[in-house]
Structures are given as structure tokens and as C-alpha cells.
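fwd from M.: "can u put these together and see what the complex looks like"

so here's what she sent:
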Amino acid sequence: MKEQEKKPRAFRGASKYVLDEELAKIVNISIALEMPLLLKGEPGTGKTMLAYAIAESLGMPLLTLNVKSSMKLVEALYQYDTLTRLNDSRFGDSKRDVSDIEAYIRMGKIGQSFVADEKTVLLIDEIDKADADFQDDMLDVLDQMSFDIIEIDKTVRAKNRPVVIITSNAKKDLSDPFLGRCNFHHIAFPEPEMMRRIVDVHFPKLSEETAQACIQAFYRLRDIGGVEKKPATRELINWIRALRSDPDFRPALLQRGDVPYLGVLYKKSSDLTLAARAIARLRRQ
Amino acid sequence: MFIQFFYTLRDRGVPVTPTSYLRLQKALSMGLVTSLEDFYTVARALLVKSERHFDLYDQVFLHHFRGVELKDPETHELTDIAKALLEEWLKDPAGVAAAFGVDEKKLKKMTPEELIQYFLDRLKEQTEAHHGGNRWIGTRGTSPVGHSGYHPEGMRVGGVSRNRSAVKVAMDRRWRDYSQDGPLTQAQLGEALKRLRRMVPAGPKDLVNVDKTIRETLRNAGEIEIVFDRRLTDRLKVILMIDNGGWSMEPYVEIVQTLFSYARSQFKDLRTYYFHNTVYDVVWQDAQRYYRPERLDDFALRDPETRLILLGDASMSPYELMYAGGAIDYTQRSTRPSIDRLKFLAGLFRHAVWLNPASLWEWDRVRTIGIVRQIFPMYELTLDGLEAAVRRLVAKN
């Protein structure tokens, strides 16, 4: 029994996440090698969802660091809350000890994943938004599994190595030292069959006919050229949800070339008009 | 292990590092890789760090492993199977004997060594052809060892697998679309735009504005209120000069124009001018190159910090570039050779790049490209080229 507990649990997908075998292998190898996994791919291919699914299936808490362009690494590690300290020192009505700087250190997401008592899944979302320095420095921290808090001259070491998932939207390559320290996978946009399975997971009661018609129409729409942001999985799910709530909807409508609720699929007005025009053209043919 | 595979990847231009190779060895030694399929996936995740190289990886993988996959099982592999059979025999003598169609008692008389030898001989016989039936080696048989199974060490025993084999997967070349060779296309517009967006040298709001902080703090009755400012970085002015003469440029003119007009809001000022093949005394603001000429000398009045981007294939007859009066349009028989005009521009604007839709291998073959390259840093009109160009343009010096 004990032997079994020691073994790293393998990741096999979660309740709302359809996992392809290849990706499962890569996730498991990254966990085994204790390396960060870098995921790239079009928006809507489920990069972020994967981290949620891993956390769910392995029963670990998930910490999400949403990277912003103006972010500095130190914010992801810890924050020294000078304002509160200043405030406390003047009014002295808090229970904190003003002379103890450590009481005013707040852990950022990476810091939290280090000090957590159990193993966590750390999702670093959209790393491409930050500049190159941030990326390289962050990998240093994740490599060493420790960082220094300068203000109190203390080193924080990870109690448990978190499972690190990093996502990136851009097709741009990240820097070489960064890539060198990650495992890499690119999630391609799902094929229709895969999409069918994804839809089935989200809408178990959807009729065969509707599912088929929706997915067909969806891939037809994705073929429309010149669109800045193509509809992705998320849009499809929302769209089906919208169609299902419409009592007048019949799958036959889609086969005729009608596309109701186009606004759910296209989020930019220029894309919307473009798509509407393309659909009108298709119907005339 | 797999050193040759590693070096083939390197030779073919996949940037693989020794560190990642060692990591792969670690993964192999941990027993995480049990089949060629696993190897395909794991080696890719560990060695290849960009989807642009996935296609190349597939090709190298095919080249390297196809032989292993398709060749007949070799003797040492058969030996492994024979050993596995021996174990099987110890567990279930009747079953194994039945599978070979021999009397169980006959086998029982043999020593283990003899048994292995016997299995080996039978296996060799049977490799030739036995499809169907419950023979040991054959396709769609009922036997536990054979094709569409894995022998104990994980290598496939030849034949085409029932599962999708790694080589089959590699043969699909699923990632072909992701290799980003070739000039910019309409489909890549969005990506290209993201690169242009980096042309704004704006940082985080991390500069304390002391004056405002004091004022705000006073206004707040002494409650400290710190005001941050963005660092003082001005937005860029951009001059785009496009060679729109000749059919060779036609497919790119529109893409580049769309690209920059989408990005317009990023810039303080964006001006587009047109020229034919190369720049002489004037460039034009209208695409017909007729109505609104602008004298090149007047560009000296522009802000020297303006970013100058030239787009053209820089391919022409050398005399168009080198000699006075070399222009092919008689209306602009200038007295000065074009090369001087280009040097003049390069002298005016220290941040200047030339984007060239011609592919790299042409660059060494066309003489005028070589000449222009000495004046302007030249980049391919690809996503990578654009990225490098942008990096150059926003560099501080």
C-alpha cells in the first residue's frame, strides 16, 4: 500500500476535459522529470483548462499567476506592503508588530506555491505578455526552487516542487534559455472528431443530429478567411448553449446555411460583418 | 542511446541542446518510455521547443526509425520473445504447447536452454508467413506475443501495428502548416501585427512623480499618496517606403499596407511613400506615383528619430542602382545615382530597415540585393524577419 502511495499519480484527464493521449504522456513525463511544461497553441485549444484539469485529477490545489505586461517578477514572488506598515506605524491600531518587516511580506503566486504545505499546480498563464527579463528570471527561480526576500534577507525555499504549467499564446518563440528549461508542447486546434468528444463532455444530452450540424457549421465558419479572431472551442460551447436555450432552433436551420447567434461566435465587429457577408454568400450558392 | 538521432536533428536544423539530450536519457532511464510511440512524444516534448520545428522532427523521426519499424525481427529480438515464451510456458504449459501444435509432454522433457532454442527455431520458421490462426508470430492471431503487441523491451515486432504507430503519426506530417518558411501571408497578419505592436517603447508605470506626490499628499491632508508615471518614452514616428512597381512586389504591397494601417494607432505618425525598384530624387505619396511627389531632400527636415522602413525586393539591373540617370522611368532621370540617395536616407534616419520578400537564398544571387544590404540592414518579410526588424527599430542605439 505504502509503495503505491509513493508512486507519482498519473494524469488521466478530468471530468470536463477531453485529453488526447499524446498530451497526457507529455504531462506525465513533465511531472516525473519535475520540469515546467510550456504549452502553446491557438486561443481556445484548452491550454489553461489543462492546468485546471491536472489540479482536479491529481487533487492538488491550483494557483494561477496571470501574467501582465507591466508585471515585475518580484510581484509574482512576494510583496512588501510598505503602505500598510506606514499606516500601522502612524496609527498603531493593528495587531501586527511594526518593527517586524516579515509581518508585512505578502507572498505572490509563485511564493504561495513554494510555501504551501502540499504539492500544488502552478499555472503561469500567458507568459508571452511579459518581457524577456521576466521570463528568464522566473525560470531561474523555478529552477532553483528558491528566491530571496531582499528586505529581510531571507531565502524562501519550496517545500514541495509545484507542477508548473506555463501557457503562451504567441507564435513567437520565447528566449532560448527559457525554452531550454521547459518541456514543450503545441496543442493543435482539435479535429472535428475530437471536437465531437469535447462537445459530448459538455452537453451529454445533446442529440446526435444537433451536435453533428453544429460542429459542421462551426468548421465551415472557421474556414472564412480574413477573420482576425477565429471562433474557438469556447465560442462553440457558448454557441451551442445559446442554440439550446432557443426554443425555435432546429438543426435543419444550420444545414440550410442559417447561422443564428453569430455574435456569440465572433467577438469583433469587423469579424462579425465579414462572417455575416460570407454566410450570405454561401447561402446564395 | 539515440545519439545518431540527436545529431541528425541537429544537422537538419532543429536546435537541440545537449542538456535536453541528457534529460531525454534521464527520462529513458526512469523507465518512463516503454514504446516507440512514447519515445516519439517524449523526445519531441524534451528536445523540440517550437512547433515550427515539429514538422522537421517528424521527418527526421521517419527517416531514422522507419527502418526499425519495418524491418523483420532480428534474432536477438526473437530471443527476447523466446525468453518471454519460456515464462509463459512455466505459467501455462498446456496453452503454449497447444499454440505450437506440439505435445505438451514433449516440451516438458526439455531443459530451459533447449526450450529457448526450440522456441527460437519455431519463431524463425514462423516469421515467414502465418497470418491468422493461433500461431505465435502472425497477424490477428490469438497469441499474446507477436505483431500488434509489444515484446518485453518495448520494441515493436515488425509489421503494421493496430495502434497508430509513431512512425505513422510522424508520416502524417501534422505540423507542416506550422513551419514558418516563406514570406508573409494574409493568414499570418494577426501574428505579424503582434510583432509590430512591440514597436511601442512603453514600460510599466514605475517612476515616482515627486511633485505630484507632494501635491496629492497635501490635498489628502498629509495622508501619503504616491503618484506613479510611465517612463518618458515617446511614441514612434514611422515612414514606410514601398516599392510598388513591377509584378514581383504585388502580392506583398497590400499585406504590408494592411499590416501597418492596422498598427497605425501604435504610432505617433505613419507616412507611406511609393517608389519603383529603388529611390531617386522623389518618392510619391500616391500609389500611381504621379500626383503627389515628395522631394527626397525634404526628408532632411523630418525628425531624425523617425523609423524608416523600406519594402522592396531590391532586385534590378545594377545600372539602375549604380549610375546617374539609371532610372527606368524617364521622368526621373536623376543626376545622382540611386545608391547615393539610399545612402542619404540611411544617413538621415539611424533607425532604418529594409524588408525584402525575396527568400534568403536569392539574396546572394542577386547583385543589387547585396549592394543594398550594405546600406540598410535587410530582413526577410517573414514573421521572424519582421520580428528581428522591429527589434532593430526599437533598439536604443
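replying to her w this: Residues 68-74, 127-164 of chain B have pLDDT under 50 and may be disordered.
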